[in-house]
Queue: 2 jobs
Job 1
Amino acid sequence: MGYHATTGKIAPRKPPAMPLTPINAPFPATRLRRLRRMPALRGLAAENTLSVNDLIWPIFVMEGEDDAYPIPSMPGVSRLTLDRAVDAAKEARGLGIPAICIFPYIEPSLKTDDCALAWSPDNLSNRVTAAIKSAVPEVAVMTDVALDPYNASGHDGIVRDGVIVNDESVEALVKMALAQAAAGADILGPSDMMDGRIGAMRGALQAGGFQDVAILSYAAKYASAFYGPFRDAVGASGALTGDKKTYQMNPANSDEALRLVARDLAEGADMVMVKPGLPYLDICRRVKDQFGAPTYAYQVSGEYAMIAGAGANGWIDEEKVMMESLIAFKRAGCDGILTYFAPRAAKLLGA
Ligand code: PBG
């Protein structure tokens, strides 16, 4: 069932699940509350579990030393200097979090139209990657492959006459991917949504001796207002001209997500992502059922801000909502979740 790597074909959808009614004896023989009576029985009957192994922790990094800058729209999250990022990776190791994902804050004066800093071997992101890999090699480092932090226009691709040009952007992204692989990245996360980038990167990685670097494709990435706080965090809010609707997906679409995932797997992605997370759990479920590939969701900055913001106001029990939101991803078929809650969730899971 699912996607066949050898033929490139997609198997037909699963038939609908058998209706549950016939296997239930009528009340009072069947009382579904019996297995909810006590924690032990609820534990035995649990269909899904969340573990630290399911977590990828996104962090924001900035230049400087021994410093952190709190992001106003993401209470509890700060941009970290390189040394503090290494501390975060050590914390991840201590908590058993398998992977950390790096997003750089780039000074506005360093942003250009050609985005050349994106593939500089010693840019901030690559220095942080190398530092983490030398201090904490057990923690997998994931990087973001997209031009937006480096782009004067704030877009993920190169802009020519107001158009985000696809093929030229892919060439730039491939250079960026190679520089990240050379810095020691374990997982590349192309979040740019250009067509053809996965195949181009996979080919270049193979040719460059980086055949074991994994690609977690942001395959079904929607043009979402839930990214607002992230753009504050990486300093892209002010820079962005227009919106990203010519390359990110229309939130109205679902079948298109399956075509994108099929395409990215066929081009050499090892893992695929749906983004944002909670508002798109229907997509996660369809992707997992259809392809059976390692499937991840990104609980994005706006989702984090809603939970952390309401929690800070005392409107919800933040910890409980956090854990409930994370198990929802597992229930929807995800193998893992990128979440800013990763260290807090890991602490609760380890307790
Ligand atoms: C940019 C990128 C974005 C996010 C991850 N990579 C924002 C965007 O597409 O504008 C969003 C993550 C979040 O909101 O937490 N390539």
Note: The first strand starts at residue 55 and ends at 62.
Job 2
Amino acid sequence: MKKNSITTLNQFISDQQNKFPYVQGSLSRIFSAIQLAAKMINRDVRKAGLIDILGNFGETNVQGEEQKKLDVISNDVFKKLIDMGSDCVCIVSEEDEGVHWCPDGREAKYILAIDPLDGSSNIDVNASIGSIFSVYKRPSMDKPVTEADILQMGRHQVAAGYVIYGSATMFVYTTGNGVNGFTLDDSIQEFCLSHPDIKTPENGSILSVNEGNLNDFPKGVQDYIAWCKETNKEEKRPYSARYIGSLIADFHRNLLKGGVYLYPPTAKAPNGKLRLLYECNPMAFLAEQAGGKASNGKMRIMDIQPTEFHQRTPLIIGSAAMVERIEKMMGSEASGT
Ligand code: P6P
């Protein structure tokens, strides 16, 4: 990246289309809609304390979770903008039980899965939150999209990314040719390239897990957490514990600095808490494109065949060496070695 040069997200996507012809024009239309939604949500998040959009909406979503007003606002913004201007057949959203069929999407090319505002329990306390998206191509243009067409493995994603509404607002995405990060310049309301070709460190010394659930975790995970706390100066142990309670914020820090985030099975969430389609798969695509790994403890996240829109999975994601060690310790528990 030339010093003092400005590359906007739109310019970058257009350059990518020249370099990678398959990044078709209509994919950029989805990106334009997502980008605009991100700017609108960013505006609302930044002034949430000043207007009456903090707090609970007064209903629960399909997950049985208390919907925050901003959850509902963000979900509506995404759906309206995707409906209006993009080549999208349908949207699976964390906030909706069923599929949202885009009104003019019958002949469209893409399928979208979104978590419109993840970590929303942090809104009222001003901690970083974010939006997550995952894009698939419809398997066939010759017949209507079916539920099976929507339930594709993560390895078939054509694009994935997140927007983090943190101390800065950033747009981080991949189309399978590496990971690039763009920071919103408020003065011109443009996402500008700030983190080209992000590569996550092979190893790290940051552990992100909710240890309140420690007694529920599989023994291999408990053993790993104990191992992280042992003193070994060479291996930078004990590791630092960093857990914000917002997947995107924890993932983003670990992506840049190295580290591992885990949400193992617990008594309350025996299949893990995070959702495969619109949280784990997009983050797994990004992690792998940046040189990291994403696993459910036994297999690659992106090789899991989804069976339901809102299914959950345990998640271990971040620096490859850290994910591999956890898998080994969980495996040794399984194999009794
Ligand atoms: P817990 C937010 O609700 C979320 O889905 C992730 O963003 C976050 O990492 C996790 O749940 C926090 O869950 O059970 O530790 O509060």
Note: The domain at 206-335 is CATH 3.40.190.80 (D-Maltodextrin-Binding Protein; domain 2).
